Each structure stands twice: as structure tokens, then as C-alpha cells.
Please model this.
Amino acid sequence: MSAVHTVNSPEKGPQPILRKPEGEDGSSIWELVRECKPLDENSMYCNLIQCDHFGDTCVVAELDDEVVGWVSGHVVPNEPDTVFVWQVAVSEKARGLGLGTRMLSTLLSRDVCEDVSKLKTTITKDNDASWALFRRFAEKRGGTLSSEAHFTTDDHFDGKHSTEHMVTIRFAEPLKRAA
Ligand SMILES: CC(C)(COP(=O)(O)OP(=O)(O)OC[C@H]1O[C@@H](n2cnc3c(N)ncnc32)[C@H](O)[C@@H]1OP(=O)(O)O)[C@@H](O)C(=O)NCCC(=O)NCCS
Model:
């Protein structure tokens, strides 16, 4: 399988190249996340470690040498059937074109997700774009979506952050093998 995914679309113009991140991408990813409210900002060092150690489960979207999309994630320790998506970020200029969906599909098509039949992520109640992205992804890929409060304002965030709802999408079989 190629590590780089390109799509040519005459209607939509040049499409971003999707690939695994490298250490040198860390600072650009950090900038993108800062621009993509309401995402939590992590340290630049955190993004570097994601690129360096978790690159197999992260996706960078690049257009004209600029990072315009990012998915960070990991296979959950001791749960080889579950990939956790930490953040999805798409630059404002590239939104609404299916890039978030493409990045999720790319992640699930990777060898590292061979045994993955569940995608988990957390979303705050007010993030309509994020709910739409994951709901539509579940529909398009034949998964069933469930959610419940997980990291709560009072018990986990000391009142400083909205409750994060754990969203679980279950697929009948691993998408990598179904492809
Ligand atoms: C959420 C985000 C990643 C979506 O990226 P995107 O590339 O625009 O998403 P897609 O084009 O793949 O859209 C997927 C679906 O969600 C819908 N959608 C996207 N943004 C939406 C919005 N603001 N409101 C309602 N629906 C929305 C799309 O219409 C599409 O559904 P469709 O297939 O029926 O048309 C992007 O808006 C973003 O970076 N937001 C800021 C950061 C954030 O909140 N990230 C998510 C939390 S992890």
C-alpha cells in the first residue's frame, strides 16, 4: 500500500496529498491546531511526539507545501480493535470539501488498523461540525454510532472544560480488511 494518497478531482481542483507525519511537521501542525477553534491547544512538544511516535495513526494533509489538515490518534493500549481519534483539524480554506472524511478513511485503511473495528473519539455537545463529521462517517461506512458522557466538567476538568462525550463507531468488520 502506498503511504501517500492523492485524489485528482477536475470539479474541486487540486486536492491535498495525505501522508504520515514526520518530525519536521510538528510546528506546522501546532499552528494549524491553534487556528482551528475550538480545538484544545497542546504543546508543540506534544505534536512532535505524536509525529515521531504515533505517525502510523496520524494523518497530515498537504496542499502546495502547506499543512491544511491533521488527524491525530492511536490504537488504544490493550484494545487492538479500537483506534482513538484525538483531534481532527482542517484549515478554514479547505473545509466542506470532504477532507476530514478522507483523512479518517486513510487512517482506517492503514496496516496498523488491520484489526480495528471500532473508532472512538470525544466531542463536546456544542461542536456541531465534529458531530456531523463523525455521524456522516459512520453512515457512509456502515457503522453504528453511540455516545455517552465520559470526561465530565465536574469530575475530570475541575469545572474548566465542557464535558467530553465518548463517541464509539462500531463497524461490522475492520474497514482495512473490508476494503
Ligand atoms: C470538524 C472539521 C474537521 C470538519 O472538516 P471538513 O473537512 O470540513 O469535513 P467534511 O467536509 O469531511 O464533512 C463531513 C460531513 O460533516 C458536515 N459538516 C462539516 N462541517 C459542518 C458544520 N460546521 N456544520 C454542519 N455540518 C458540517 C459536512 O457537510 C459533511 O456531511 P455531508 O457528507 O453530508 O456533506 C473542521 O470543521 C474543523 O477543523 N473544525 C475545527 C476543529 C474541530 O472542531 N475539529 C473536530 C474536533 S476533533
The CA atoms of residues 22 and 51 lie 5 Å apart. The first helix runs from residue 26 to 35. The pocket of coenzyme A is lined by residues 36, 38-39, 87-90, 95-101, 127-130, 132-133, 136 (CB under 6 Å). The mean pLDDT is 93.
